[in-house]
Amino acid sequence: MIPAPFTYRRAASVDHAIELAAGAGEDAKFLAGGHSLMPLMKLRLAVPDTLVDIGRIGELSHISEHDGQVAIGAMTTHDEIARSGVLAASVPLLAQVAGRIGDPQVRHCGTIGGSLAHADPAADLPAVMLALDATLVARGPAGTREIGAADFFLGLFETVLAPAELLTEIRIPKPASAAWSFQKFSKRGIDWAIVGVAVQGGNVGLVNMGSTPLRASVTEQALASGASPEAAAAHAAEGTSPADDLNAPRAYREHLARVLVRRALDEAGTRA
User: In the chain, what are the domains?
Assistant: First the structure.
């Protein structure tokens, strides 16, 4: 299908992008890599009046480490994250996950900020941000604010970002534990995960187990109480609400969550 008519604007800086979006009203959208937004526009599931292209804003593409945390610009591509020496050394979970997203074309064009702002619970990176206790930095007409990953995702394709507010940076505290793992089950390597699991230390993030990315809180509590990986993984599906659709019934997703959490905890344990 063909998208509905829209006005295209190209931003030269973050402040310019916010100014353009604010002037266009609530129906303006920021365009990053386009891999999430453009398909929705073609299906007319998204019908923005104005697209503000932020793809050429250099200040939004960077990876640096300082004061015990890693900072990643929102326009940094998945490929740049996967190949980053800084992330391979400090946050290997994120580097590995980014290298497994989609195919090379998607990884070269898709961005971390675009994936997080899109807020698809079937995407890998939102659950990884939960497991890493990341902080997301947003700037808008009212100024800059920092948002914990646990507070960022509100629902399917819905975040706390206000109109004309732009996600600019992701800040991740350098993990104290070397125990990490990422497991996912999909029909093909390039497909969305039917279920995925991100483990960092005692944190367990779940992919595609609800309308938002989730933490496996009961499993985390069991681990904190000294439970074995097997016993903790048995609680992985508790408190979740996975979809029951053509890709998999709910009971199968719950089973996958328990299996993948067990595998992830076992693998993380070998790295601790």
Answer: 7-53 (3.30.43.10), 58-173 (3.30.465.10), 180-271 (3.30.390.50)
